Amino acid sequence: MKPLNEVIAACPPSGIRRFFDIAAEMDDVISLGVGEPDFVTPWRIREAGIYALEHGYTTYTSNAGLPALRMLICSDLQQRYSAEYEWDTECLITTGVSEGLDLALRVLLNPGDEVIVPEPCYVAYEPCVAFAGGTTVRVPTRWEDRFTVDVDVVAAAITPRTKAILIGSPANPTGAVQPRETLQALARLAEKHDLYLISDEIYDRLTYNGSHTCLGAVPEARERTVVLGGFSKAQAMTGWRVGWICAPQAVAELCVRVHQYTMLCAPHVSQLAAVEALTSAETDVSEMVADYDRRRRVFVKGLREIGLECPEPDGAFYAFPSIRSSGLDSETFAERLLKEQGVAVVPGNVFGPSGEGHVRCSYATALPQLETAVDRMAAFLQSL
Amino acid sequence: MREILELLERDSSLSHDTIATMLGLPVEEVSARIAEWEASGVIRRYKAVVDWESVDDAISREKVVAFIDVSVAPARGVGFDDVALRISRFDEVTSVHLVSGGHDLRCTVVGRDIRAVSDFVSQRLSTIDRVMSTATHFVLKTHKRDGDVFAEPEPDHRLRVTP
């Protein structure tokens, strides 16, 4: 047989997969390894989805997505973050940020272009860059800096081939929120070197100390930034697969061009449910955010009390404690914790080399389970 | 401060320590506030939400609930208040509201069986001065009460480890 696509064949499977396989075999596992809300989609949104099905909204929509939804997204961005986007020329609906990321990279990159990616970061960034023909240039962030990006380190990584900087804030896996000044400095850097910025803002609503900065609202960044967002996290709609891209017209147009041939459109029912989410689910969202915040405080305090240093996670729903005091590496720690105490966490190194020495713990888990998990982690640490 | 009450209203078994951590407040402040509210009657008492229909037979108790709509002739100076208070004093009555619509008071009455509730309505409630008429609605099944849905919780459909 002739060889398959060499870029894809060379891409290693996600390091998370192995832990999924072990955890799936076990009973009595408390999983802190889940990257999605433990809330079910608020009922009013599910009900809108049922209504849409009942009334036969089972067709394609326009490629870019329902105008009503795009208008709502743009006016929400305007009101919340003062980001200005034209709904009809600068906004399209995707099947989640996953597709949005793929579209943005394919539209921005030519073969051999480099993308600077601060890590630890979401596991899909590097593979998606490779699938789009680009090369990832990782730059480390340090837990001593609470995983904020050092703009000088980014600047030092720029070469004549650099095309874009890809950043996720609030971040999976670290929970770090990049300060506004950092984003502004990145924007100035991008302007100076004529780089694009891709800003993954899927966790925008989940911030607990101060508010989120939308990169599209930073003046120097506006014309060179692709903002990716969606409904999976704040509205607990992961399985609906609906997200969006807001970008300058030239970029947005080409994103629609790829999207129309590869995806055609995001699911109609999901788009209608998303309309409901933006129209009437604000109370549900703020209640869920308040709940995450409370669990976050209890969980982080618990981790610190059992001797794990944990930088304050300002956003998303992950804590990323250091496990160096255990003397184990991330993989061993996670595997033994799972097998010996039945607590599933994700080793930090799967998110990049700077994640070594950490594990990702999701606190999108009921409070009593979080408390039991901390007890079991304490027992595990004692046993070492 | 409102959040303390909201948390307790949802789960009164939370310790003061946990509440303090959740809200980022000193535990002394949380305890002092709760003590104040307990003393002043803002917090009346703590209770459990029991789903009696799913209690096993050995310890379950027969219980019949009815909503009784009561029409009352109002009186100068007191309106409906004196009658509402008289009705409220019966242990069998678990709630009394003054409502708009075809009747004046909507009460919840709990009894051992249908007979007990009927007797209560005909002997006690209807005979109160200025009670003009009553309409009794027996509860056949409770699906939701005070924000608690009495159905099987939805299982967690999430995979155990996801990116």
From TrEMBL, chain A:
Coiled-coil region: none
Pfam families in alphabetical order: Aminotran_1_2 (PF00155)
InterPro entries attached to this UniProt entry: Aminotransferase_I/II_large (IPR004839), AspAT/PAT-like (IPR050596), NHTrfase_class1_PyrdxlP-BS (IPR004838), PyrdxlP-dep_Trfase (IPR015424), PyrdxlP-dep_Trfase_major (IPR015421), PyrdxlP-dep_Trfase_small (IPR015422)
GO biological process, one term: amino acid metabolic process
Key words of the record: Aminotransferase, Pyridoxal phosphate, Transferase
Top-rank EC class of the record's enzyme: transferase
Cofactor: pyridoxal 5'-phosphate
Molecular function in Gene Ontology: pyridoxal phosphate binding; transaminase activity
Domain annotation Aminotransferase class I/classII large: ranges: 28-376
Enzyme Commission number(s) of this protein: 2.6.1.-
PROSITE patterns, alphabetized: AA_TRANSFER_CLASS_1
Similarity-based family: Belongs to the class-I pyridoxal-phosphate-dependent aminotransferase family.
Name of the protein in question: Aminotransferase
Species of provenance: Pseudonocardia sulfidoxydans NBRC 16205
Gene behind this protein: yugH
TrEMBL record, chain B:
A Gene Ontology term for the protein's cellular component: cytosol
UniProt KW keywords: DNA-binding, Transcription, Transcription regulation
Superkingdom, natural source: Bacteria
Entry's Gene Ontology BP terms: response to amino acid
Keyword Chaperone: no
Entries under PROSITE patterns matching the protein: HTH_ASNC_2
Domain HTH asnC-type: residue ranges: 1-81
One GO molecular-function entry: sequence-specific DNA binding
Name of the featured protein: Putative HTH-type transcriptional regulator YugG
Organism: Pseudonocardia sulfidoxydans NBRC 16205
